[in-house]
Specification:
about 220 residues, Immunoglobulin-like, elongated
């Protein structure tokens, strides 16, 4: 039987290094990580996903009250009111076939640096029928500052910002008597796609059910 000498092992390692060098510009570590993640998702899908693998049901999301501060990393969010209207000039002009559905919040960022409004949007979803869509998914809501109705582009460390989250709903659908808002915390992690760090992986931490009030234009 042939012996596996250190020289032979080193020779094999050098051979594999040369082979990888030929494709290293294509199979970068980031892409290899992405391929591994895709393969893992494929295996999980074949066995019914994470819940089937773990053998447990997803935990029920706890209820929170209107006006109750909720820790939703990297924010603290307090849900205040839900309203609907057709127009509210000069911030909201009428849109054929749609009404506005808005939820007002107080948002405090606990992050040490500003958090972009784009990173806030995954933190809140609303359970409502026939929201305006992009393709087969609900369109991301607009974020406005409550003080002046300007776009909420970022949330500053330690500051509480009155925020309005705006969706559009088909006006052929009856106005809902109430809606349920789901608040989701996120994780600061490095992307396998480009190596950048960002808030990702929203996971529900609380639900708030509140009545939808009519707001008449002045």
């Amino acid at each position: 039987m042939a012996e596996h000498t250190p020289q032979r092992a080193a020779s094999r390692l050098e051979t594999w290094r040369k082979r990888y060098a030929l494709v290293s510009d294509i199979l970068t570590p980031q892409r290899l990580g992405l391929l591994g993640a895709v393969a893992l998702l494929g295996v999980l899908g074949a066995f019914g996903g994470w819940q089937a693998v773990e053998g447990v049901d997803a935990p029920e999301v706890p209820l929170a009250k209107v006006g109750e501060p909720v820790d939703v990393a990297p924010f603290e969010i307090t849900v205040r009111r839900a309203r609907h209207f057709d127009e509210l000039r000069p911030a909201f002009y009428p849109t054929d076939g749609y009404r506005y559905l808005v939820v007002s919040l107080d948002v405090t960022s606990h992050n040490k640096t500003p958090v972009a409004g784009l990173d806030f949007k995954p933190a809140i979803t609303v359970d409502a029928d026939r929201l305006q869509t992009v393709g087969d998914r609900p369109e991301a809501p607009r974020l406005l500052r409550g003080v002046d109705a300007l776009d909420a582009r970022s949330f500053q460390p330690g500051l509480t910002t009155s925020t309005i989250v705006v969706w559009q709903q088909a006006d052929s659908t009856p106005v809902p008597a109430e809606v349920t808002v789901t608040l989701s915390a996120q994780t600061w992690r490095q992307s396998v796609m480009d190596g950048g760090w960002r808030w990702s992986d929203p996971a529900p931490v609380a639900r708030v059910t509140l009545p939808v009030e009519a707001l008449e234009a002045p």
